[in-house]
Amino acid sequence: MNDAAEITRPAKPYLPRSPAGNYNLWMVAFMVSIAPFMEVLDTTIATVSLTHIGGSLAASQEESTWILTSYLVSNSLVLPISGWLQMVIGRKRFYMISLVCFTISSVACAFSTSLSMMIVFRIFQGIGGGGLAPATQSMLSDSVVPEKRAQIFSVLGLTIVAAPAIGPFVGGWITDNISWHWIFLINLPVGMLAGTLVAIFISEPPLLVQERKELLKAGLKLDYLGLILVAIGFGCLQIFLDKFQEDDGFSSPFILLMFCIWVSALSLLAVWEWQHPQPVMNLRLLKFRNFGVGCVIMFLMAVVFFASTQMLPQLTQSLLGYNSETAGDVLALGGILTVLVMPISGFICGRYVPAKILLLAAFAEISFSMFLQSGMTLEMTFQNIAWLRGATVIAMPFVFVPITALCYVGLPPKNNGEASALMNQMRNIGSSFGVSAIGTILAWRSQFHHARLAESITPYSSLHGMTASQIAPLVQTQAVFMSYIDLFRIAGFVALLVIPVVLLLKSPPKMGAQGASVGH
């Protein structure tokens, strides 16, 4: 049966944990992916619009960063326990609660009149947004057998990979042409649409209902210490990463305190959760080789992807004089390529090309493109920079789809929700680590390059008739640019380091071109 017929044929029963019920799985996958796409998109949009938001709320640049930090912290508290919450509350109910919380708090953010109001509503927005991607991934992974998941995960891949790629473009356009309020208000119609579709077409499988009843009937042993350690550990880790460079690193007593707290809390959490009968974070899943290795790869992928997504807009705005909309346009081509390539990745992964081969080729290409970007100059045109970006992100679908599918190989189906939570938390931490590393390395290398360049300048130095005081700003610009070049090289080396890690993954059961359709 060909793919077109497969998508349009009458629905057939799916796996017992699938939320599709009597509806077509592709339609269901699209419906449940709307909300997480909105959530991930909103995160990158807010980053671009931060200066405008802070100015409107009479907040300084330093104070404005808490608009991002508050969201990331609350998001990181929900992500690791979202699998447990799905079991206790019910997966569909948890999804709907998360969606309503995210949508309502988004509207409240748009009408905030002070920084404190904005931060409070951003916290609630992060709490709601934290549950959307893990619940969606759990629904999709429960709908098809492991060897056929790559195709369906390509839909989710548009959420995780494409949304951050086009977010700066959308955010820049909305901020420059309409108002920053609309980066939040746009979530209202999208959230209402997603909620309506999920409420009508998505079902809670009877098997999950029965498992929840048995869990509650046996007596829920609430892991109070685990919840506390998750809140303290991941909350302080997120603050540490987000504020590290801004607060001058380990020379700051506040940063040092955050470091000590998160290291202690997460170390104790690992020991406690490993032996708890009903952990809020099931770390025992890391014993499954593919899942443990896959989490490492997911973390490193997020470091490279989100760091590079942050670098180009910063570079073009600070050194090339682009405004926020034009800086976002630099990433637009990459976003378009990602959307076009993602379905291809899902179609060929495992069916025609082994998932491991795709991963190896993708990370090799990402590394190569990063090294190409390290050859940029301040005279490069907008088109050249955009194509270099496109060369990087075109490989991302061939990372996300295979690694997401491979992570579930060997995992018991009942643990898919908990696995989705841990994977998304690793992606979340990786993105925060990558963005934090950019600021830190950029500052360190800028000082290094400035010192080297300044060694040859004296009060009597001249360049094309310019005095030393006129040369100084050029030296600073060149030092910062050379630091960005260093960052691209480092990202290239990190991508190379992932390649031997990929070799540790086990391949899923083989599948042929025949009978490989999703939901068959």
What labels would you give this structure?
520 residues; 74% helix; Growth Hormone, Chain: A; 2 domains
Please provide a written account of the structure.
The chain is built from 21 helices and no strands. It is mainly alpha-helical and 520 residues long. It has two domains: 3-220 and 278-502, Growth Hormone, Chain: A, CATH 1.20.1250.20; 222-269. Mean pLDDT is 82; it is low at 1-11 and 511-520. α17 (355-373) runs antiparallel to α18. The chain has helices at 3-8, 25-48, 50-56, 61-78, 82-89, 91-110, 115-130, 132-141, 149-177, 182-185, 187-201, 206-217, 224-243, 253-275, 289-318, 324-348, 355-373, 382-393, 397-407, 416-454, 468-502. The relative contact order is 0.14.
